[in-house]
Structures are given as structure tokens and as C-alpha cells.
Design a protein that fits this description.
This protein is α+β, with helices and mostly antiparallel strands and 664 residues long. It is 50% helix and 8% strand. Strands 6-7-8-9-10 form a 5-stranded antiparallel beta sheet, sandwiched between helices.
Length: 664
């Protein structure tokens, strides 16, 4: 994706100017009428550049040095005093974007008065796990990594620990502190992916700094100074090998930052226009508010006038395209229709191109132009003056640091004020990344994005639909629950009830939005079961080849029917199978790769399991049996299937497994 600089609408915006934008226009529109928080006089206090920092246990206890990346992209060595207290702050003078002071807010699982670990270990020890000792040991090891803010590969255990703490009776402050620690671990994964790509990239040192700085805006859930760097960040995460669930977390955060920027641009455009009367500004803002939230437009005449006003302005093309998409596609979208209409990358790109072709001059590639733009364009880059900050971000929600929230450290905040705008901004990101070529990938230090964007548009729309339902406290009904889980985990992972494979945090949402403030044993067991299967296609080439072999032999051949292949095993049936007959037979490093139910009730309590090491089976009231792959050619005892034809084929299949995959 090539940047272009030959249009009066597309020019560079320095960071000092952007801070002027942020302090003068991010929600400075409070009035006496709370219906229009955007219209207000600006206060004159200066911009507060703040960072929430999670401090590892030992540094929090003894003191030390911790590297923090600033919005400038520079790294700062922050001195941490010993025995810090939660939410303590330190102000460092003149290191900010405008030479302003910077405030750091500390968080940690260290507490000088209480050992938080002991309380969480007690929760782990008392939990009703299926595989009691094995799971407890695994989850305790994960907690130690969380406490020390270490890089964690085992995100499945991390999901289980999160649910255990969130559903506990621990003090609310402890649960909140743990949530920040948990989110820090997820952000560590994102940040390592960014640094890995930057190390391989051909970007200049200044370009790398701008990528790092742009990420800090996204992390803070705040508007960004340059859309083109935001798109490059999205490509780096999309092209990385981190879990899909974490890619989804970043994509939603990135969409929020792009949408917040567009919102600032449009609100400021309306508010500052000297030719609009106060009454016209109020009616325009009322209609715009309906558009950004995905609501039905109450005044079509005003909508037509607002469209002419915005599309005829000199704000950036990208802002106009996001605005147009927000009003056209998000009302009454559910997970199923989103998957049908926007499930593929090509359909998303075509939709964005069609919307943009009405705005971008003929002869210029629509997506290339949109991808090359700065965030703000003429209208905002010409702003000056200072003011305090945050009415718009408060109104939109989403946990912005500028609005007093935690940014991405606060988890996946539901934004009810600008859901449609966020969905549209996310679709634009999907389209822009999809049109990158091999040269772009090489320049950004990524191998490819092939296949990883599929379904991203549908996830964004499903999340948008859930946000417009105002799921924060009001969600009800099976369809609405399915929508929010689909948004969190992807549209292909729902198999009924709480059977979610791809994103364990979806269990927390599913349980708590149903009004279950206590721990649900079924959900706990299903989360635990994910430790012993695959939640994504594995990166290990031998295991990946085995999964492909099983898929071909068990699904694409008609001789054997009914086998389910990981990662598409319904987690409720898997949980039942482990509880009923596989628990004592699984080794520490063993993963369940396929299973078949043979019982009358089709609940997984009787059947056959294939792991990466052995076959396990149980029929009726008999004791479970197993045979290792390496022994299949010597010992012919195998589970009986429904028909003689199936039995013969299964013996042949088992021998192939024993011959080719006995060393997994």
C-alpha cells in the first residue's frame, strides 16, 4: 500500500498539531442540554497525557526500571519506586508529545498488605475441575506468569483462569486488578507481534517509531494521528501467527480508534461551521448521533442536508466513506446475515470500494487513496488552541484513557454511542489490508495475510449489532446471546449453548449477560476441556499434517461417519467425554484431535477419541479402553463401530495412523 502526498486533502499532520486537535476537539462539546454533549464551549486546561502501566510483582515490591513506549513512539525508562500502591501515579515533566508532563498510573498484583496470589490459589484449589490435579497445576503456573507480566503462549489456560477469577467471590478490587494483569498479558502478545514484524520490516526508524506510537493511541482507545500507520498496524497483526481471538481483540480496538477519529472530525466540522445556525447544528448533530449509533433516522430531510454538507466538505475521504457506510449497512444486522453479506474479504472490499467511488476522484484507486490518507485532513489539521478533553469519548464509551478509562487494559468495552461508526471503520480496515500486495508485506515485515482476513468483516458487524443491542446489562434472548458470542469468537464457532471453542472470554460474557453472577460448573468444565484439545489449526507441521489426514479420512470419505475434528469439536460434548472416560487416560502433553459419539443420547459420554498419541473408547457400562498408535499393528483390539464396513475401514485407518503418526 503506497502512501500518496499529491492531494490537498492528503497531507502530513505533525504530532504537536494533532495534540492540539485532541485537546480542542475530543469531546469539548458539553452544553446545558445533555442530549447534545458534542456542542459546548471548550475549557482551557491543558492536555493530560496518561499511561496505565502494569508492573511485575518483583519490581512493584522492590522497585526497578520498566520500559514504557510513549505516543511519540519513543521508549522511556520509567523508574518504579519500591512497594507501589495500586493506582499510584507519577508525573514526569517534559517528556510528552508537546514537551508536556506525562502521568503514569501504576497497577500490579503486588500488595503490601495482602498476598493476592494466596487468595487466587485458594480459588484454584477449590475449583471443581474435571482433571483436578493436572488442571490446577497448569492454572497455577499461568497465574505466576500473569503476576510477573511474562509472555504467555498458553492463552487457553489464561482464559480458564480469567473465568475462575471473574466468577469468584473475591473482593471486587482484586478481581479488577487481576483483569488488568490478564489484559496486559494479551497486549504483550500483540506487542511482541508488532516488534517481530518491525524487526523484519524495511521501514525507516522514523516509520517504526510512528507505528509504535500509533499503537499506543489504539491501546488507549483514543483517536489516531495517521490512518495509514493504523492500516499498517492492522496488517502486522493480521499477518502474525498469534491466536485468532487476540487478532479479533486488536481489530476491534483499532476500529474503535479509527471511528473515534472520524467522530472527532465530523462533530468538529459541524460545530465549527460559521454558516450554520445553532439550531441547524443541533439538528445535524441529532441526525449524526442516530447514524453513528446505527439507529433509525428520524428526519430524512435533515439526513439529505447533512449528507450534502459532509460529502461537500474538505475532510478526508476516509472519514466520508466511514460516515456513508455507517448509515447504510448496520441496522438490524445479526450474525447470520453478516456472515452471508460480509463473511468474505472480497465482499467487504467491494462494498467499501463502491461506497468510496462516490467520493474519490475517478482515475484514482479507491482503496489506495483511502489507505494513504492521514487521519484528519484539512479541517482538523488547521485547528489550534487548547481545551480540556473528553465529553465525546465519554459519550461514546469504550474505556478511553482520555475519558478516565483503562483503554485496552480495561478489556473489550461495549460502545453503545457509536457502534455503527466503529463497525464501518473496521470494515474499512479489512478492505485496506486485503488489497495489500507482496511488496507491502515485505516492507512491513510480514509473510502474508492470506486467509486470515476471512470472516473479519462478519465479526465486526456481529459485534456492532451486539453493541447496538446495548448488551451491557440488557442482553436477553438466545439470539442476542448468540450474536455477542459470535462477535467475540467468530461466526463459525457456535455449536449450541455455551459451546464456544475459539474465544474463552466469550464464556464470561455468555454467563454474566444471562444474569449468572455465580460460577457455572458446566462453563468451567467446558473452558477446562479446551486445555486438552486444539482451538485453532496448529502451527506444528507434523500435527497440522495429522489434522489434515484425519479430516480427509474421517470427513471426506463416506466409509466412516460422525467423527468431529478439532478445532471444530463441540466443547460441551468434549467436556462430557473427558469427564466420562478420557480423564485418567490422558497424558500431560496429550491433545484430543477427533471424537465420535456412539451412545444413544449423543452427549459425548460414550464413544471414541483420537489423540495425538492413542485411541480411547468406551461402550455402554464397560470400562474405558485404549491403545497407543505405535502398538496398533501388533494389537488388533480396536473399538467397534456401527457396521462391518465401518469396522473394516477403521482397522485400515488405525493401521495407517500407527504406521505414519506413531511419533507425535
Amino acid at each position: 500500500m503506497k502512501r500518496i502526498n499529491n492531494s490537498s486533502d492528503l497531507f502530513s499532520l505533525n504530532r504537536r498539531m494533532f495534540l492540539n486537535l485532541l485537546v480542542s476537539s475530543v469531546g469539548v462539546y458539553l452544553t446545558k442540554d445533555v442530549i447534545f454533549p458534542e456542542i459546548a464551549s471548550a475549557n482551557d486546561d491543558s492536555f493530560q497525557e496518561k499511561y496505565h502501566v502494569f508492573v511485575p510483582y518483583d519490581i512493584a515490591r522492590r522497585g526497578g526500571i520498566q520500559n514504557v513506549t510513549l505516543r511519540s513512539g519513543d521508549s522511556y525508562k520509567l523508574t518504579i519506586p519500591p512497594r507501589i500502591i495500586e493506582n499510584n501515579t507519577i508525573s514526569i515533566p517534559k517528556i510528552g508529545l508537546q514537551g508536556n508532563d506525562v502521568t503514569f498510573i501504576f497497577h500490579s498484583l503486588y500488595d503490601p498488605d495482602v498476598r493476592i496470589a494466596d487468595k487466587i490459589y485458594k480459588e484454584i484449589d477449590n475449583a471443581d475441575f474435571i482433571r483436578k490435579d493436572a488442571t490446577k497445576s497448569q492454572v497455577k503456573e499461568i497465574y505466576e506468569l500473569v503476576e510477573d507480566s511474562e509472555y504467555i503462549k498458553d492463552t487457553i489456560s489464561l482464559d480458564l483462569l480469567q473465568y475462575l477469577v471473574a466468577s469468584s467471590n473475591l473482593d471486587e478490587q482484586i478481581r479488577q486488578r487481576y483483569e488488568i494483569a490478564h489484559q496486559t498479558c494479551l497486549l504483550n502478545i500483540i506487542e511482541k507481534a508488532i516488534e517481530t514484524a518491525l524487526a523484519k520490516s524495511q521501514l525507516s526508524e522514523d516509520g517504526k517509531k510512528r507505528i509504535r506510537g500509533t499503537y499506543q493511541y489504539v491501546r488507549a482507545s483514543e483517536p489516531v494521528p495517521d490512518f495509514s500507520y493504523l492500516t499498517e498496524l492492522e496488517a502486522m497483526i493480521t499477518g502474525s501467527d498469534i491466536p485468532m481471538s487476540i487478532k479479533n481483540i486488536y481489530s476491534l480496538a483499532s476500529a474503535k480508534s479509527r471511528a473515534f477519529t472520524v467522530d472527532v472530525i465530523i462533530v468538529k466540522l459541524i460545530q465549527d461551521n460559521q454558516y450554520l445556525s445553532l439550531q441547524n447544528k443541533e439538528t445535524y448533530l441529532r441526525t449524526y448521533k442516530e447514524i453513528r449509533a446505527g439507529q433509525k433516522i428520524s428526519d430524512q430531510n435533515t439526513l439529505q442536508l447533512l449528507n450534502l454538507f459532509i460529502l461537500g466538505s474538505n475532510i478526508s475521504y476516509s472519514s466520508k466513506v466511514v460516515y456513508l457506510m455507517a448509515q447504510n449497512i448496520f441496522a438490524e444486522k445479526d450474525a447470520e446475515s453478516a456472515n452471508k453479506n460480509f463473511g468474505g474479504v472480497k465482499s467487504v472490499a467491494n462494498f467499501v470500494t463502491k461506497a468510496g467511488s462516490n467520493i474519490v476522484p475517478i482515475g484514482q484507486g479507491v482503496l489506495n487513496v483511502l489507505g494513504a490518507q492521514t487521519a484528519t485532513g484539512v479541517a482538523i489539521s488547521s485547528l489550534s488552541g487548547g481545551a480540556s478533553t473528553t465529553a465525546t469519548l465519554v459519550y461514546l464509551g469504550g474505556g478511553s484513557v482520555a475519558a478516565g478509562g483503562l483503554g485496552m487494559l480495561g478489556g473489550l468495552a461495549v460502545v453503545t454511542g457509536g457502534a455503527a461508526l466503529i463497525g464501518a471503520a473496521g470494515l474499512l480496515s479489512v478492505a485496506l489490508v486485503s488489497q495489500m500486495d507482496a511488496e507491502d508485506y515485505k516492507n512491513l515485515g510480514i509473510a502474508t495475510t492470506t486467509g486470515t482476513l476471512t470472516g473479519a468483516g462478519a465479526v465486526l458487524i456481529a459485534w456492532t449489532a451486539a453493541s447496538m443491542l446495548e448488551v451491557a446489562g440488557t442482553l436477553s434472548g438466545a439470539a442476542a446471546i448468540t450474536t455477542i458470542i459470535s462477535a467475540l469468537g467468530g461466526l463459525s464457532v457456535i455449536t449450541g449453548g455455551a459451546s464456544l471453542i475459539a474465544f474463552g472470554a466469550g464464556f464470561v460474557v455468555w454467563s454474566f449477560l444471562k444474569g449468572q453472577k455465580h460460577r457455572d460448573a458446566n462453563i468451567l468444565h467446558q473452558l477446562e476441556s479446551r486445555l486438552y484439545t486444539l482451538t485453532e489449526i496448529p502451527a506444528d507441521p507434523e500435527l497440522k499434517d495429522f489434522i489434515g489426514f484425519l479430516d480427509k479420512e474421517l470427513n471426506q470419505d463416506s466409509h466412516i461417519k460422525g467423527f468431529l475434528i478439532a478445532p471444530n469439536i463441540p466443547i460441551d460434548k468434549l467436556s462430557n467425554a473427558i469427564s466420562s472416560y478420557a480423564d485418567s487416560l490422558l497424558e500431560a502433553d496429550e491433545k484430543i484431535l477427533a471424537m465420535k459419539n456412539t451412545g444413544f443420547w449423543n452427549d459425548g459420554k460414550e464413544g471414541i477419541i483420537l489423540t495425538n498419541k492413542k485411541l480411547i473408547w468406551k461402550n455402554g457400562w464397560s470400562e474405558p479402553e485404549f491403545i497407543a498408535f505405535y502398538a496398533i499393528s501388533e494389537y488388533r483390539k480396536l473399538p467397534q463401530l456401527a457396521t462391518d464396513e465401518e469396522n473394516i475401514y477403521f482397522y485400515q485407518l488405525a493401521e495407517k495412523i500407527g504406521k505414519n503418526y506413531s511419533n507425535l
